[in-house]
Amino acid sequence: MDHKNYKLDTKLIHAGVSPDPTTGAIMTPIYQTSTYVQAGPGDHKGYEYARTQNPTRTVLQNALAAIENGKYGLCFGSGMAATDAVLRLLMPGDEVIVSNDLYGGTYRIMTKVFAHYGIKFHFIGMQDAHNITRHINAQTKMVWIETPTNPLLNVIDIAASAAISKKHNLILVCDNTFASPYLQNPLDLGADIVLHSATKYLGGHSDVVHGALIMNDAGLEERLRFVQNSCGAVPGPHDCWLVLRGIKTLHVRMQRHCENGEAVARYLHAHPKVDKVYWVGFEHHPNHDIAKKQMRGFGGMISFTLKDDNMDAAVAVLKKTQLFALAESLGGVESLIGHPATMTHGSIPREQRIANGLSDSLIRLSVGIEDINDLIEDLEQAIG
Ligand SMILES: *Cc1c(COP(=O)(O)O)cnc(C)c1O
């Protein structure tokens, strides 16, 4: 079936998936096998060994490619394994320009793992994408953006970053975890590689850790598929199946995440004890115009600070919520509350964290798809 002409909501359910040829099973089977029998040496059906290929994974890879409007998808055992694979495209001496407000684990693998192999990372503010140009030199090979950013919900202009990257022959990587393919498709805006922690909105039920890369360029796909197989950070078939199942409801979940997110953001904005609220959908968000241009909705991720701006006041709120569970991660059906300074972003040195605007009292919400009145009531009793 050619899925190119279907709309996203149809592709989420059907893309890549066809009835199982042996039984007609409508849902993709979990091919729980490590190897495949060959009729004679090299005489096989495209499957030799399950690190290299697995039919459940193939279906998911094709589905992910289709929903990001890309040609190729590659799956990994986690979002970080996908990040690791992309960074393995680099050689000692290469330089990367990275947005300075990003997932803590991404910052950690760059500064604590790949920096040791002689790769240099420049972490810069990208609210104005043209800032990228000032850091390009002869060694620059890659630009790495995350938008909206975690946890400050900054927005980076993907099309402008892509134009700069193209002009200087740099690979543009876009971490699209926060927006999900429902809200934003970076390949359409000129990015070379889209990265997902499928652990979050794609899986959507907080029951699987998984990562993905999607791209259009055959050469890049070949290099990354080589890394996927050579380094071996592949997901098991059951995890692939969970993500495949999760993405079938991405559109209905995201609609509710967006509705609930907006209601919570506006409630917090009007709250006398709340200081700043970070949410992409506010008309007064510094890059709201870019968000409107490149996103189809504003999602359920919100961060805020309290007027009583200290760690203890924030911790008191974190301990009091009942529905909002205190936990790392995001993008599941249930609402979560977190403290970036000590949790997701604990690996970023304090001075740098504060300099980037991530204060000690910042609270991050992943607004789930529960009843909005229950969610607001929970925040009301917790904030007081
Ligand atoms: C969680 C996350 C990652 C890492 O993904 P894992 O699946 O936890 O390895 C990368 N980027 C962003 C934006 C994330 O939220």
Labels describing this entry:
single chain, 384 residues, Aspartate Aminotransferase, domain 1, five-stranded mixed β-sheet, binds pyridoxal-5'-phosphate
Task: Please outline the helices and strands.
Layout: H1 8-14, H2 55-67, E1 72-76, H3 79-87, E2 95-99, H4 104-113, E3 120-124, E4 140-146, H5 158-167, E5 171-175, H6 180-183, E6 193-197, E7 211-215, H7 218-231, H8 237-247, H9 250-270, E8 274-278, H10 288-294, E9 301-306, H11 311-320, E10 325-326, E11 336-338, H12 350-355, E12 363-366, H13 372-383
Helix pairs in contact: 2-8, 3-4, 11-13
Report on the structure:
The chain has about 375 residues and is α/β, with parallel strands linked by helices. It folds into two domains: about 5-245, 3-Layer(aba) Sandwich (Aspartate Aminotransferase, domain 2), CATH 3.40.640; about 250-384, Aspartate Aminotransferase, domain 1 (Alpha-Beta Complex). It is built from 13 helices and twelve strands. A seven-stranded mixed beta sheet has the order 1-7-6-5-4-2-3, with helices on both faces. A five-stranded mixed beta sheet has the order 8-9-12-11-10, covered by helices on one side. Helix 4 (about 105-115) links the parallel strand 2 (about 95-100) and strand 3 (about 120-125). Helix 2 (about 55-65) runs parallel beside helix 8, helix 3 (about 80-85) runs parallel beside helix 4 (about 105-115) and helix 11 (about 310-320) packs across helix 13. The radius of gyration is 21 Å and the shape is globular. The N and C termini lie far apart (about 55 Å). The model has no long low-confidence stretch (mean pLDDT about 95). The protein binds pyridoxal-5'-phosphate (PLP). Pyridoxal-5'-phosphate (PLP) binds near residues 103, 106, 150, 175 and 197.
